[in-house]
Amino acid sequence: MATLQTKVLGIDFENPFLLASAPPTAKIESIDKAFSLGWGGAVFKTITPDNLEMIEASQRYATWKQGNKVCGFENIELLSHLTVQQWLDGIKFLRQKHPTKVQIASIMAPVVKEEWQNLVKTFNNSAIDAFELNFSCPHGMPEKGIGMAIGTHPEVSATITRWVMEVAEKPVFVKLSPNVSNIVEIAKAVEDAGADGLAAINTVQSLMGVDLDTFEPMPNVNGKTTFGGYSGMAVKPIGLRCVAQIRQHSNLPILGIGGISNWHDAAEYITLGADVVQVCTEVMVNGYGIINAMKKGLLQYLEAKGFNSPSDLKNRAIKNLSAHETLPKSTQAYPHIDDNICVKCGKCITICDESEHSALSFDNGAINVERNSCVGCSLCSHICPQNAIKMRI
Ligand SMILES: Cc1cc2nc3c(=O)[nH]c(=O)nc-3n(C[C@H](O)[C@H](O)[C@H](O)COP(=O)(O)O)c2cc1C
After folding, report:
1. To the nearest whole number, what is the mean pLDDT of the chain?
2. How many domains is the chain partitioned into structurally?
3. Do 223 and 338 belong together in one domain?
4. Which of 32, 88, 325, 333 has its CA 20 to 30 A from that of 364?
5. Using one digit for the tens of pLDDT, what is the confidence trace for 40-58?
6. What is the distance in A from the centroid of ligand 1 to the CA of 22?
7. What is the mean pLDDT of residues 2-30?
8. pLDDT in tens, 56-94
9. Is 183 strand, coil or helix?
10. What residues contact 13, with CB distance under 8 A and at least 6 apart?
11. Final residue in a domain of this structure, among 281, 300, 320
12. What is the per-residue pLDDT for 40?
């Protein structure tokens, strides 16, 4: 029998699904509800010293939708509006009511040693299991020299990590930004500075769009906007890439985040090096209840594969990442068209012709693949409106 339990840095996770630092973890009552519904843990909405001003804008969200499905989500939201004391009381309450759930305090402070260390010392004495340092919020905070302004500089990231490690009595994860040219450089800087683990990714800096009648960009704050943070299923490939790149260069535990909307996404993150995962946007779109299907799906998958726990799945795909130069190039895949599904619309022929290769044509009413021209790029299989084309070697 497989289990979803896993252990990271001595912390027992009853399942590898955590709520990421965001609105679903902004209120104690909500976290209480999420724990009751089965989430394994929560990273709190980022806590700051009480004197750091948080004045929010409205509107603060914008979405990219296909039909009713939210594919991409932008926010320009700031950090927690609870005081440090409210968090301390809430942590105590949550620990008593949910003793087995993992509680992680996400924190951020101005770049002043005492400010970071005071915050850490305050939460050392609480029942949290770990800290997550938010070096990665891409909006609002960078203007004050914090958030992503820290996480885009290896030296500043390392300095603050050292300050925190001097006083932290709980494991410390550093949450990294994808908005850098080399995430490994920042990961290695904080690892060398003593971080116990890493979390990736925070949101991808973005601008959702522009209303072409009014020229007002989105999200619309009384006609204006600011660059925001992109999340949701659209960012999963960026998150996977970042986690895999970090795993290729570091053995530290990784909390995988970014576009996880079901157990399958979570499993992919784990195969690329994540120890456990965090979810934000999918919960904001569909509610805490998604946890049931996530737990059930991952457990069934582990059992079907003969794995005992998520840790058996960890890193399984890493060995299959290689430099382009060393990819196995002696074989080629060709399109195979299922004549029972193909409606002979000819779209694949047009697209193949207009995107370099001209390898497809009609032949007696069927689609013919000209093997000498086909390079096996797979474009036809992705654009077929009927899903009638499969690539095979
Ligand atoms: C509305 C909103 C608020 C967020 N607030 C925080 C925050 O306070 N601290 C933080 O570290 N990350 C914050 N995030 C980032 C998420 O924790 C997460 O890293 C990101 O959304 C990617 O995961 P997802 O695709 O599952 O949403 C926020 C994200 C959203 C959408």
Report:
1. 97
2. 2
3. no
4. 333
5. 999 999 999 999 999 999 9
6. 5
7. 98
8. 999 999 999 999 999 999 999 999 999 999 999 999 999
9. helix
10. 5, 6, 7, 40, 41, 102, 276
11. 320
12. 98
**Nearest-CA residue for atom 1 of ligand 1:** 75
Q: What is the CATH number of the domain that holds 374?
A: 3.30.70.20
For residue 231, the ligand 1 atom closest to its alpha carbon is: 25
CA of 125 to the centre of ligand 1 (A): 26
- Asked if the structure places residue 1 within a domain, the reply is no
Can 137 be counted among the known catalytic residues?
yes
**Same structural domain for residues 283 and 333?**
no
Residue 169 sits in the same domain as residue 21: yes
CATH number of the domain that residue 198 is part of? 3.20.20.70
Specify the pLDDT at position 127: 98
Q: pLDDT, tens digit, for every residue of 192-212?
A: 999 999 999 999 999 999 999
Q: Are residues 228 and 350 in the same domain?
A: no
End-to-end Cα, the chain, rounded Å: 36
Closest-CA residue to 392 (of 336, 311, 313, 308)? 336
Tokens representing 240 are: 């996977």
Residues 288 and 349 in one domain: no
For residue 279, report the distance from its CA to the centre of ligand 1, in Å: 8
Q: What is the pLDDT of residue 215?
A: 98
Do residues 336 and 302 both lie within one domain?
no
Residue nearest to atom 23 of ligand 1 (CA): 258
Task: Tell me, in angstroms, the distance from the centre of ligand 1 to residue 334's CA.
Answer: 41
pLDDT score at 217: 98
Q: What is the mean pLDDT of residues 121-133?
A: 98
One-character DSSP codes across 22-70? SGGGSSHHHHHHHHHHT-SEEEPSPB--TTS-----SS-EEEEEETTEE
Same domain, 30 and 175: yes
d(Cα 176, Cα 278) in Å, to the nearest integer? Answer: 14
Written as six digits, the tokens of 57 are 């804008």
- Closest atom of ligand 1 relative to the 259 alpha carbon: 25
Catalytic position from the list 71, 137, 342, 352: 137
Instruction: Locate the ligand 1 atom nearest the alpha carbon of residue 79 and give its number.
Output: 8
CA of 384 to the centre of ligand 1 (A): 35
pLDDT for position 195: 98
Which amino acids bring their CB within 6 angstroms of ligand 1? 20-23, 45-46, 73, 75, 77, 79, 106, 134, 137, 175, 202-203, 231-232, 235, 257-260, 279-282
